[in-house]
């Protein structure tokens, strides 16, 4: 099975089931959906339950159970969809993927998205105080990327956690990665995103800046702007006075 065929077929293997409100003339305010995907790469199976753009639950196929995105969420009622039913859907997805792969391999171009990464702190920055860096990776397709962290070019793995893939309305996925840090001046953190089978990576950098220095710089820039405005205003007044005097002298010369 070719990688191009397997990735291209992933789009056809996405199975969405709307669980939201009944169809009305007005567009729904909120939408709850399930998205099931299957692919040759790891993870080979994925099932996410989302509310609007937020993931609520992820189905753990090896353990045959729903896991909440947040610890405080109540458990998903298993009677709505039993694990055997979900495993049957996953088996159908795999059969569909294999059949479509054999049909379109070499006939359809590979569908791949270019991930976009951004790094930001979870809490307001204070140098020397514990914080958590968040790496948001968007436009993932197929959902098979590795996310790593580096500090000053050295890989960091301690305390790193990742979320599962969250589907989006444009048939792509997003994923978060978290790194606990105690930022100091001069640190350079980077989030490295690598797609399976690629020789290149997408890197997003984050350098802690002292908020006090930013405020001082902002104050200095505001002061410089005010001084420049005042100087330009004085120059304008001086030009008006010189012009008025020149006209007065000319008129006086004519009358004499």
TrEMBL record:
GO terms for biological process: antigen processing and presentation; immune response. It comes from the Eukaryota. SMART domains: IGc1. It holds the Pfam family C1-set. The chain crosses the membrane at residues 223-242. It is found in: Membrane. It is a single-pass type I membrane protein. One of its GO terms (cellular component) is MHC class II protein complex. InterPro entries: Ig-like_dom, Ig-like_dom_sf, Ig-like_fold, Ig_C1-set, MHC/Immunoglobulin, MHC_I/II-like_Ag-recog, MHC_II_a/b_N. Keywords: Glycoprotein, Membrane, Signal, Transmembrane, Transmembrane helix. Its main location: membrane. Residues 109-204 form the Ig-like domain. This is DMA protein. The lineage of its organism: Eukaryota, Metazoa, Chordata, Craniata, Vertebrata.
């Amino acid at each position: 099975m070719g990688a191009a065929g397997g990735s291209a077929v992933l789009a056809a293997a996405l199975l969405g089931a709307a669980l939201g409100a009944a169809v009305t003339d007005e567009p729904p305010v909120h939408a709850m959906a399930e998205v099931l995907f299957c692919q040759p790469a790891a993870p080979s199976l994925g099932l996410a339950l989302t509310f609007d753009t937020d993931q609520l639950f992820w189905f753990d196929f090896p353990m045959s159970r729903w896991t909440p995105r947040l610890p405080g969420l109540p458990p998903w009622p298993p009677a709505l969809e039993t694990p055997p039913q979900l495993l049957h859907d996953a088996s159908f997805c795999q059969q569909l993927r294999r059949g479509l792969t054999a049909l379109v391999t070499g006939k359809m171009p590979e569908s791949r998205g270019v991930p976009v990464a951004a790094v930001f702190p979870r809490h307001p920055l204070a140098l020397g105080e514990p914080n958590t860096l968040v790496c948001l990776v968007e436009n993932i397709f197929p959902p098979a990327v590795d996310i790593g962290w580096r500090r000053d070019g050295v890989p960091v793995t301690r305390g790193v956690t990742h979320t599962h893939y969250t589907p989006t309305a444009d048939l792509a996925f997003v994923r978060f990665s978290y790194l606990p840090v105690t930022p100091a001046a001069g640190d350079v953190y980077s989030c490295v995103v690598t797609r399976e089978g690629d020789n290149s990576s997408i890197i997003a950098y984050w350098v802690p800046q002292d908020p006090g220095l930013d405020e001082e710089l902002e104050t200095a820039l505001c002061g410089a702007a005010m001084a420049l405005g005042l100087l330009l205003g004085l120059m304008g007044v001086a030009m008006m006075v010189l012009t008025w005097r020149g006209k007065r002298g000319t008129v006086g010369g004519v009358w004499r």
